[in-house]
Write a structure and sequence with these properties.
heterotrimer; A mainly alpha (282); B alpha+beta (342); C mainly alpha (293); A: 282 residues; MetI-like fold; globular; B: 342 residues; alpha+beta; Rossmann fold; OB fold (Dihydrolipoamide Acetyltransferase, E2P); 2 domains; five-stranded antiparallel beta sheet; 25% helix; 32% strand
Chain lengths: 282, 342, 293
């Protein structure tokens, strides 16, 4: 369109740059802090250029945590976060896709009932049923375990909905053709449905990976043993007392480590990420 | 009302080595009050040309004048034009009245004047009962008329139509065509109408621009375009069934293509010898497809006859003669029309 | 929408839904049922026996000023987070939609905060706003503003609101961008031809057509503010100072875990459940009635 509005264009770019700066500012400060010594970090004002403690700090937290707060090494915590994220993401996708398959492609009594049961869970985020769920997990002896960290978070209505919605857009002719080719339901699922769902699975995986990695309340409740902490919990436990007591440089190094994998996933799998967000909320 | 002048219009996408030129130097003058149709196949650049006149696309090179003003750098709103879009582009959240009044409100027109103009346009287009409705409550044809109403109330110097009939069914299309003609007779506003349908072009145009691959092949009245096509493209694009363009006609001068319309070939006792390949009966007329008896057996000649005329048998031999003055010659290499003194 | 063509099997579908259903029953319904159960019980001092207490817990809550305060705090918090997050994201989306050059770069640089955990977002902003060593604190001091959220409740609220909005901007931004790009370009062109400049076009055409997205985000952001911001609060203010940032979900946690008040926190959970159900119903009801062009 012929539209000469140089001022507006300038303001638009300026606004976006300001937005990006404001959004990125905490990250920048965090990174700087993670390269300083404790004394430098506590200086007011803190310097705005990177220091030289990068390797020291990161090595320290990965192997030995902080010295004044939690001393649990962050390395294993990152591993726990990874396990949690991967298990939750793949677990959710696996059980949701098969139950969606059943609900969409089979007629059986109780079908609607099961669907509504799953739907209702949308109204029960973990924060609402914290204490009793904790009790159930404790009774099952799953505290401080990977099972306890992941299983309660695996049955998700959003994934089931997403797959159901997607399956409904697949033409009936495909099923009929597969049937005529002699394929039974499982064959159809494996050879036709699964490949067609590849993009939805990728999208969902990105979202669920981030969700699993960033879990806070749940791991906080059910882990006491330091070896089962996740990275996100670990950060909190390093913050002790007032500002001056906490080793902020190490806390920030841990924060960077905790932010990195999900951020990389978002940036490099951006297309899937966006698709995943848009699909799961419609 | 105003004339439209297109001077050496060139449109390019991209820049430098990666640029892609899609319109190659179009020159045309559309008279004040004229109804000109830009017609051509998909992708020929006709919509792009229209959008450049509207200001919705930038002009890479050349000048567009509306009236006496050069409008290349003017925003669409300042060109005093109105446009009817292919998919109507009605504001879905506003009533028909508000849709039509929108531009006038922005121009800070007096509310009484707005009401007057909207009701007059609604009257002409017979959409007065719909003024309080939203677009989604209307049928396609009704929405199209609202779109035209929105353009009319602006009382612009130029009307632009971008394939407005393409989304209507055949019957509605014919009806709306007549309404557009009526409107033009009544309002007399300079109009530029884009379509890919040569029937629409032939029926609506006072003159038409025939475009192909970004080039203006001919700019003339329907009669000129039909009777004296400037290139083989125009010859085959206008008229249905398409004109025969024959490379192997006997006695044709070397290096020419002979063009003759199926309706201008008569079955006679002597003339070109053809073997009948197939026959199609289309109700009031019959199409006979023949191949040369001698040589060039892969070229097909189409003849149109009345349904009441005698039907030759498939496989039989017939002779056809072209009516005098209805034979066209085109240069085989360039496709341009050649006038041959007999 | 139903599928016309289905498979027939008497046992396979049950097997396929089994994993999800088992987990749903064990970890959703059983605990939810327990929460509802305990909401109507009263525990004795040792936590040993429970006796049926009817609506006692609820009555107590609705008369408890601490609880009502928490309600008010949550309402203020969620309104600020939702409106702030939506306004800022809308502005950014409109700007990003207008630019042609660098659009992808801008988009990438604006969406990564989604990957940051709520608790981490809290820690980051907590560090920036730390009363003694924070950078922003320092800058504010230059303008004679004394910042100390540990002492001032409304400053603490501002801190958690900012951290929560920061994290949610990406999500809102992406949805607004998708909404903007789904508006047919011909509508914008028609408006331009009608004489509307960019600003007028935004308020009279774009914004009204964006209203389904806006409403949707409003509901989602409120749910987010209610529940997903737990990490922000726990990692910074811990609900303080003096409960000024103790939103409902945080209170459930504090009362249930730290004070081991089973009845009270279960009743709170039950009330929260009602709120979620209401919000979810609104969200689904509304999504069904989306405006079609």
């Amino acid at each position: 369109m012929v539209e000469r509005r140089p001022l507006l264009t300038f303001l638009t770019h300026a606004g976006l740059i300001i937005g990006i700066v404001v959004v990125a500012f905490p990250l920048y400060v965090t990174f700087i802090a993670s390269t300083l010594t404790v004394e430098q970090v506590l200086e007011v004002p803190m310097q705005m250029l990177p220091g030289d403690q990068f390797w020291n700090n990161y090595a320290q937290v990965l192997t030995g945590g902080s010295t004044r707060g939690s001393t649990a090494p962050v390395g294993p915590m990152l591993f726990n976060s990874l396990v949690m994220a991967l298990v939750i993401a793949s677990g959710k996708i696996a059980i949701s896709i098969i139950s969606s398959f059943a609900i969409v492609y089979f007629r059986f009594p109780l079908r609607h009932f099961f669907f509504w049961m799953i739907f209702v869970t949308l109204m029960l985020p973990v924060e609402v049923r914290i204490i009793p769920t904790y009790k159930v997990v404790a009774d099952l002896g799953m505290l401080d375990s990977y099972a306890g960290l992941t299983l309660p978070l695996i049955a998700s209505a959003t994934a089931t909905f997403l797959f159901r919605q997607f399956f409904l857009t697949i033409p009936d002719e495909l099923v009929e053709a597969a049937r005529m080719d002699g394929a039974g339901p499982l064959r159809f699922f494996k050879d036709v449905l699964l490949p067609l769902s590849a993009t939805s699975i990728a999208a969902l995986f990105v979202i669920q990976f981030i969700y699993g990695w960033n879990q806070y309340l749940w791991p906080l409740l059910i882990t006491n043993d330091e070896s089962m902490y996740t990275a996100v919990i670990g950060i909190k436990r390093m913050i002790v007392g007032g500002d001056a007591l906490t080793e902020w440089n190490l806390v920030m190094a841990t924060a960077i480590l905790a932010m990195l994998p999900p951020a990389l996933v978002v940036i490099f799998m951006q297309k899937w990420f966006v698709k995943g967000l848009v699909d799961t909320e419609k | 009302m105003a004339s439209i002048e297109l001077s050496n219009i060139i449109k390019r996408y991209g820049s430098g080595k990666l640029s892609n030129q899609v319109i190659h130097g179009v020159n045309a003058v559309i008279q004040d009050g004229e109804f000109v149709v830009i017609v051509g196949p998909s992708g020929c650049g006709k919509s792009t040309l229209l959008r450049m006149v509207a200001g919705l696309e930038e002009v890479s090179e050349g000048e567009i004048r509306i009236g006496s003003r050069v409008v290349n750098n003017l925003e669409p709103a300042k060109r005093d034009i109105a446009m009817v879009f292919q998919n109507y582009a009605l504001y879905p959240h506003m009533t028909v009245f508000d849709n039509m009044a929108y531009g006038l409100k922005i121009a800070k027109m007096d509310i009484a004047e707005i009401k007057a103009r909207v009701s007059k346009a609604a009257d002409i287009l017979e959409i007065t009962p719909f003024l309080d409705r939203k677009p989604r409550q209307l049928s396609g044809g009704q929405r199209q008329r609202v779109a035209m109403g929105r353009a009319i109330v602006r009382q612009p110097q130029v009307f632009l139509f971008d394939e407005p009939l393409s989304n209507l069914d055949a019957k509605l299309r014919a009806q709306t065509r007549l309404e557009i003609q009526k409107l033009h007779r009544e309002l007399g506003i300079t109009s530029l109408f884009v379509t890919h349908d040569q029937v629409e072009a032939m029926t609506l145009a006072q003159r038409m621009i025939v475009m192909n691959a970004g080039v203006m092949e001919q700019f003339g009245t329907p009669e000129e375009v039909y009777n004296r096509p400037a290139t083989t493209f125009v010859a085959s694009f206008i008229g249905s069934p398409a004109m025969n363009l024959l490379k192997a006609a006997p006695d044709a001068p070397h290096g020419t293509i002979v063009g003759v319309r199926p309706e201008h070939l008569d079955i006679t006792d002597n003339g070109w010898a053809l073997r009948v390949d197939a026959i199609e009966l289309l109700g009031a007329e019959r199409l006979i497809y023949g191949r040369w008896l001698h040589g060039a057996a892969d070229e097909m000649v189409t003849i149109r006859t009345e349904e009441s005329a005698a039907q030759p048998a498939v496989g039989s031999t017939i002779h056809v003669t072209a009516r005098p003055g209805k034979v066209h010659y085109f240069d085989a290499a360039t496709g341009q029309r050649r006038e041959l003194t007999a | 929408m139903e599928k016309r063509v289905v498979f027939r099997s008497s046992w396979l579908p049950y097997l396929l839904v089994a994993p999800q259903l088992i987990i749903t029953v064990v970890f959703f319904f059983w605990p939810a049922g327990q929460a509802l159960f305990y909401a109507f019980q009263r525990q004795d001092a040792f936590g040993m026996n429970v006796t049926f207490a009817g609506l006692e817990n609820f009555e107590y809550l609705l008369n408890d000023s601490a609880y009502l305060d928490s309600f008010k705090t949550t309402a203020i918090f969620s309104l600020l987070v939702a409106s702030g997050g939506i306004a800022i994201a809308l502005l950014l989306a409109v700007m990003a939609d207008r630019v042609v050059k660098g659009a992808l770069a801008y988009k990438t640089l604006l969406i990564w905060p989604y990957a940051v955990a709520a608790a981490v977002a809290g820690v980051l902003w907590g560090f920036l706003f730390a009363p003694s060593i924070g950078i922003v604190t320092f800058v504010l001091k230059q303008f004679d503003i004394n910042w100390n959220w540990v002492l001032h409740g409304d400053q603490a609220m501002l801190l958690v609101v900012i951290a929560s909005i920061w994290k949610q901007i990406s999500y809102n931004f992406l949805f607004f961008l998708a909404g903007l790009q789904s508006i047919p370009r011909s509508l914008i062109e028609a408006a331009a031809l009608d004489g509307a400049g960019p600003v007028k076009r935004f308020w009279t055409i774009v914004f009204p057509l964006l209203s389904p997205t806006t409403f949707f985000l409003l509901v989602v952001n409120i749910v987010y503010a209610f529940f997903d911001t737990f990490g922000v609060i726990d990692a910074t203010t811990g609900g303080g100072p003096a409960s000024s940032t103790q939103i409902l979900v945080y209170k459930v946690f504090v009362d249930g875990v730290k004070s081991a008040d089973l009845g009270g926190s279960s009743a709170q959970s039950a009330i929260l459940m009602l709120i979620v159900i209401a919000l979810t119903v609104v969200q689904f009801r509304f999504v069904e009635r989306k405006v079609n062009y």
